[in-house]
Design brief:
Elements: E1 5-8, E2 15-19, H1 24-36, H2 44-61, H3 73-81, H4 89-103, E3 104-109, H5 113-122, E4 126-131, H6 135-144, E5 153-156, H7 157-160, H8 167-177, E6 184-188, H9 191-200, E7 204-209, E8 222-225, H10 229-238
Parallel strand pairs: 1-4, 1-6, 4-5, 6-7, 7-8
Antiparallel strand pairs: 2-3
Helix pairs in contact: 1-4, 2-3, 3-4, 5-10
Pfam family, one: Hydrolase
Protein name: Haloacid dehalogenase-like hydrolase
GO molecular function, one term: hydrolase activity
Length: 239
Amino acid sequence: MKYTTVFFDLYGTLLDIHTDESSDSAWQALSDCLASHGAVWESLDLLRRAFADEEASLELREAGKPDHEIDLAPAYHNLFALRGIEPTDEMVAEAAWTFRSASTDYNKPFDGATDLLDALRASGRRTVLLSNAQALYTLPELKKFGIAPHLDTVFISSQAGWKKPSEQFYRLALQTTGSDPEHTLMVGNDPDADIAGARRVGMDGAYLHTSDWFGDAPAAVKQFEGADYAALLDFIQNA
């Protein structure tokens, strides 16, 4: 068996998603959520600027680390604190999920995503998620779409402090799962983060061309047009 473990990207690989975090409706939903807990913001412009300032402050703390990832939980926390409210973790999670939901135009698994994961596990392979994402957004989405039970392990960049193509993030996942890079395949839709990043730590990468944002991935051992899971499964099983 060439590949005993398969790492998957999430967005654009298992989930088809489009968000618009600039939309007034998303910021209004966040403002309403905050206000329901007593944290009243006088205008959406003030709220936007406050969040941008909090995010910039978090980024500044990690400025010396290439491919670092921040966790936005403190930013959401401070949207309450700046209005005199000390939030619980549940309130922070509610605010983040409210904004995520309101800023999402569509989000759904690609057809056959969980069937692919199940087929790989049934063949004795492990399925691992390696996602550049915010845990406050991604963990509820994994639960919402029922993907989590089909994965053996989940790694999210905001929890790790690193994001793809960081070697640190890949090595964390490899070491934690006890995976041999020569027998681990990365499946993703980003030529740099998913494919080139995997190659740097000795892993093969399979590229799903699901977005017009990206072109070819010359470093991939195999490229597929769209989320062609049937062809991907055949490739893995016969590699």
